[in-house]
Specification:
Blueprint: H1 2-14, H2 26-51, H3 53-72, H4 77-83, H5 90-121, H6 129-135, H7 137-143, H8 148-154, H9 158-181, H10 187-207, H11 222-293, H12 295-322, H13 324-331, H14 340-365, H15 369-421
Length: 422
Amino acid sequence: MEQIRGSRSIRFPAFSWRAGLHPSAATWVLLQQLVVRGLVAVKFLALGRILGPAAIGSVSVALLAVAIAESLSDTGLAQAIIQGREAPTRSQLGSVLTTLATRGVFISLLLASLAPAMFHMFHLRAGELGLLQLAAIVPLIRGAMSPAYFVVQRERRFQHISAIEISASIADCSVAIGTALTGAGVYAALIGTMTGESIKTSLTWITMRPRPPLRLAWSGIGHYVRFSRWIWASSVVTLVLNQFDKVVVATLLGPAQFGAYQMSSRLAQMLLADAAIAMSQFLFPTFAAQHRQEPKKAARLFKRYLALLLCALAMVVLVLRASATQLFSLVLGKSWLGAVPLFDIFVINMAVGALIALLVAYLRAIGSPKTTTHASILQVLVLVATVPLATRHWGATGVAWSLTAGLSVSAAFMFYRLTRSK
């Protein structure tokens, strides 16, 4: 009888579209995705129109530096807490907080010290060194976030998470656009990001339980580290996959070309990949909870989401490629029309990325994070083999096609491993 009750308690969030406004419903994840990504779109599209491609390229360089540093030091503790069979104790959360806060301090100091070198490496304009130094504060704020956030994710309290993420995004978008209009220039985007991250960090401490003890502690999380080492390895490989092309374009072509490359990539991501990534935040803990109870039901749930996603992606890709020119002209203006050929490629790229987000959520939920790491390594090998030649002959367009090829190989490998495991 207990097993039957446990199964029913898991089934509820798995078929969450019937659950309406239940705190664990997928409705909240979708609402969060719609509002947060919509606000991100408004923020960067507005800044793109106000500041132009070169300024967006400079901002992207600063955020690129943050992303690289955070990926290299990703602990994987969040995923380990969500996937683990037992919920963490307050003492363990204290150790997680110590680890994450220390990581944030380290990244901030590293970025601040490397700012002059990055300024010259990425050909930033005079007066933009402070942009890199300001970006160094972002990881410090993120590192102070309460690890109770991961417990809330584990317990699938998506309504709570949605409220915090939406509040932070509203502040980010409002402050960024407001400061840009008042003359803050390239600094507007980072000022908005810092405001949003500060609000998110504060709300995790104010509204989430259990609160970890505020003391230095490192013990008691060895079992999380054993799982998270694969997450860290995957993060390092993903760093190469996600940032390698950006580094190549930024260093070789400068901020203006990098701005066009980034905007086309970001716009395709907003319209395609972000929805799947948001759903993976719901599906990872849901798959994990279902798998702990009945693995076969978790597999069936995965197949249903996979079929739905494939149909949706095919339709959206066709529509976006057909309307790309009109979209850029209407939203960003004619100065951005040179980015349309890149956008056509990134639409395909992000569709494959959306598929991978679902695969990664399921593989990590069933306790196989190493499969995703191996798939990422294959993707790196494809990039190493194709990017030099593609860049030489086709420039940024060649880099974009190389990324698409690597993503396709990665997705195919994960499908193969899932088929073999069955």
